[in-house]
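General statements about sequence and structure are easier to judge against a single worked case. No coordinates are needed to read the tokens, only the vocabulary itself. The sequence in question and its structure tokens are set out directly beneath this paragraph.
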Amino acid sequence: MTSTTPEAMARGDRLAKRNAFILALATALAGANTTVMFATGAIVGAELAPVRSLATLPISIFVVGLAAASLPVGMLVRRFGRRTAYQIATGAGVLTGLFGYLGVTFSSFPVFCLATFSAGFYASAAQSYRFAAADTASDAFRPKAISWVMTGGIIAGVVGPQLVVWTKEALPPVLFAGTYIGQAVVALLAGVILSFVDIPKPKAPAAGTVFRPTSAYFRDPAFVTAVICGAATYMLMNFVMTAAPLAMIGCNHSIDDAAYGIQWHVIAMYAPSFFTGSLIARFGAPRIVALGLALTAISAVVALTGITVPHFYLALILLGLGWNFGYIGASAMVAAAARPEERTRLQSVNDFCVFGVMAVGSFSSGQIVTTYGWDMVNWVVFPIVAVGAVALVVGSRRKPALA
């Protein structure tokens, strides 16, 4: 039986804080890898794709990589432990840079899509860093541990776009060739940092332990509500962010403008993480998720009012803030719904659902922005926010499923 005395909780939280700090650094580097891909993917796609409507296909392939890796990453964690599983995943980050370099150097759209798939695989592992920090945390510290890890994204929001700005012409005459080599180096550094994580390998379940079938998770209102809200928040963030750089270029703004737009967006995604955990502890995860959904809707309103650089930047900042509150809140709800012995399994199922919904949205983003325009991208936000809001209201009125 696990001790829950204040002394035992303090000892556990010292380790949790150390792990959260290391995982925050790893998140910064993995997030920079992802940010580079979001800042450049649609632009490179527009150059390499056989038709313009496929310009955002590389970002959609990224999301497919996210979804495809969610369950395998969970199995690697259960088989080898989090540290080894995450170091294996950094290999996909290195391949992202190498394939990206080859794709732009040889003007190969399929190879570039392979790069974005690898980026998605790496990002999927990085997304579970927040749950890794929670593994060694007490119940009281768990929301803060998740929040601490997410603060690494602030550094990612600076490093990723700056990597694009400073290296986009480093290996002339091929645009972004140097950027993708930089990606590979950053992923290697992340692998070194992850070697310092100290999270015990999940223990084998005790004899006679009965696991709930996956279908039982979806009879738990708390889990279902968390999945719907997390999927809605993340899908909309990805849906709008994927189209934004292409829309900015189409509005005669520069590549640097687009890169800095993504920079402010990513900073806004992670900056509130310094206090999001405290807000969840004080007000409860459902209220913070509701705030996230509201901010996402407001970002669409701003985007619909103009196409100047400040309009894009403000909309992307609000979108990032909405994602932070909505997604961290939903993640805390998932963590609270999991039994200790099924934590990694439940988290993997959640991520598979969230990233699967993201993939649908991402595939439609390019078609919508190139066919119907930037305004239509933002009009799509409102009904999906409404779905998340309804799920939150209905879920809060229902009692949790019995064990």
Summary: The longest helix spans residues 6-48. The CA atoms of residues 227 and 350 lie 6 Å apart. Residues 1-9 have pLDDT under 50 and may be disordered.
